[in-house]
């Protein structure tokens, strides 16, 4: 089973609310991407059914961006319209919680810097051209490497 990027973003928005914090559009994009990457690496299956692309400021899910763009660089204040929801408890929700624990306190700039490092799926795809799809194979290999590092 795979989910919309909006459903994953909503899971992070709920975790942020529960911890008394807020998230921006860019933070959500990066956290959703990390959750997808770690799901590929840990569960050997995708979390999100939408493609992620290499944009100037990192990996972006275009459909999620359209839902979030009204917030600009400000804080996202409401849950997003989504046709699905991450089941709790589930392996998927556990990966999302793990990503939140590891990366949830990072700023948008810190998260973006992680995606922009040399030899990351974003940097390799960006070198091929703006808006290039970042393949799940590339993402999975990178995040598996993070697990053993």
Mean pLDDT across residues: 97
Number of helices: 7
Order of helices and strands: HHEEHHHHH
- State the distance separating the first and last CA atoms: 28 Å
Low-confidence stretches: none
Name the structural class.
Answer: mainly alpha
Q: Provide the number of structural domains.
A: 1
Strand segment count:
2
Helix content: 55-70%
Report on this model:
It is a single chain. By secondary structure, the protein is mostly helical. It has one domain. About 55% of the residues lie in helices and about 5% in strands. It has seven helices and two strands, in the order H-H-E-E-H-H-H-H-H.
What's this entry about, in short?
The protein is mainly alpha-helical and 149 residues long. The protein is built from seven helices and two strands; from the N terminus they run ααββααααα.
Features:
2 strands, mainly alpha, 56% helix, 7 helices, two-stranded antiparallel ribbon, 149 residues
List the helices and strands and how they pair.
Blueprint: H1 5-18, H2 25-43, E1 53-55, E2 58-60, H3 62-68, H4 91-103, H5 108-116, H6 121-128, H7 136-148
Antiparallel strand pairs: 1-2
